[in-house]
Amino acid sequence: MTKRIGILTSGGDCAGLNATIRAVALRARHGYGWTTVGLRSGTLGLLERPVEAVELDPDRLDAALARQGGTFLGSTNRGDPFAFPMPDGSKKDRSGEMVAGLKGLALDGLIGVGGDGSLDILRRLLAPSKVPFIGVPKTIDNDVANTERAIGYSTAVAVATEALDRLHPTGASHERVMVLEVMGRDAGHIAIAAGIAGAADVVLIPEVPWHLKVVVAHIDALRAAGRTSALVVVAEAAGQSDDPAEPDSDAPAHGVGDWLARRLSKATGAEARATVLGHVQRGAMPTAEDRLLAATFGVRAVDLLAEGKADRMVAWWNRQVIDVPLAKVVGRSRTVDKDGALVRTARALGICLGDKA
Ligand SMILES: Nc1ncnc2c1ncn2[C@@H]1O[C@H](COP(=O)(O)OP(=O)(O)OP(=O)(O)O)[C@@H](O)[C@H]1O
Ligand SMILES: O=P(O)(O)OC[C@H]1O[C@](O)(CO)[C@@H](O)[C@@H]1O
Ligand SMILES: [Mg+2]
User: Fold this and answer.
1) Can 141 be counted among the known catalytic residues?
2) What residue spans define the domains of the chain?
3) Which residues form the active site (predicted)?
4) Rounded CA gap, 294 and 286, in Å?
5) How much is the average pLDDT of 268-275?
6) What ipTM did this prediction achieve?
7) How far apart are the C-alpha atoms of 193 and 258, rounded to whole Å?
8) Is the domain defined by 4-152+286-317 classed in CATH 3.40.50.450?
9) Atom of ligand 2 nearest to the CA of 237
10) How far is residue 129 CA from its own chain's centroid?
11) Fold annotation for 153-281+338-348
12) pLDDT over 60 at 35, yes or no
């Protein structure tokens, strides 16, 4: 039977979303003869009347899409359907309106490409609609539970690594400590991976409690050994987990990069500069790895709908695409394992994580 499935992208954008949309539309048409409808602006588009949706003809989706960052369908990380911010400042449950908008599209299935927050919201939103839902994990933060990889992470790590490659020569030329603040929301995945790949001297992540005095001692030791510059990577959330018992525990929840550069300069006497990488990590062309993930996840998501499955998420595990119940994904977050391979590797390379000298 010919089916009509929908796809939407939700949460912060990242590289690889367009490649995912294209893979879904191609698989649906050429694998099953189905039509794919792209829903615009994530959940927000479901409040428009008519609902913002466009039929996707896969043969008209240029292959160049696989290379483009962002999402041509648009996305949102604002406007919780269950507590929607209203102009007068109040919050309103608008999930019923969204479900009504979705039902009007007469879909036989929906694929939602999102991070932990979006997948949770979409799962709850779709439950009363009875529309079969399959989730595809994407987020530069790589913090979605039960998948080793989310679309967009590889690209963000590549961008952060390239930033370190660029900070190294300028830092060395001016004999400075260069601090790079990277994204990751509450997790340090981008920081630890880019820190290793970009040969940083210090990596600070929220999962490993760190102390300014340990970082200062490490930089002092490097300088005593003849090094004139240093590279420091700090995850945006690293300030929140500094030990409250320590005198230097005032690392702020926001702006930890600037704070750290000022403190390091004062304590070591070296000049320091901070770079906040920000949304540059999200907006890049996807790496080959992210394009592959997008393709394999997109195809598998359609196949799951064809198999009559629902309430599941495609996932990457042990070098394979698998699917897991969404119930085992939502409400959890996958942070960096502080005893895991990357942390051990960083330590073995002499990278200071701020917890021991
Ligand atoms: N579809 C959505 N509608 C409204 N708010 C959303 C939506 N998706 C996420 N949010 C909100 O955006 C914020 C970011 O959440 P979260 O990090 O969990 O997003 P995500 O979907 O995981 O995507 P990403 O982490 O890549 O931005 C949270 O406050 C969450 O409630
Ligand atoms: O685009 P916004 O709303 O500034 O959100 C930024 C956040 O989104 C992410 O880029 C992805 O979740 C986080 O790393 C970051 O904290
Ligand atoms: Mg998230």
Assistant:
1) yes
2) 4-152+286-317, 153-281+338-348
3) 141
4) 10
5) 97
6) 0.92
7) 21
8) yes
9) 16
10) 28
11) Rossmann fold (3.40.50)
12) yes
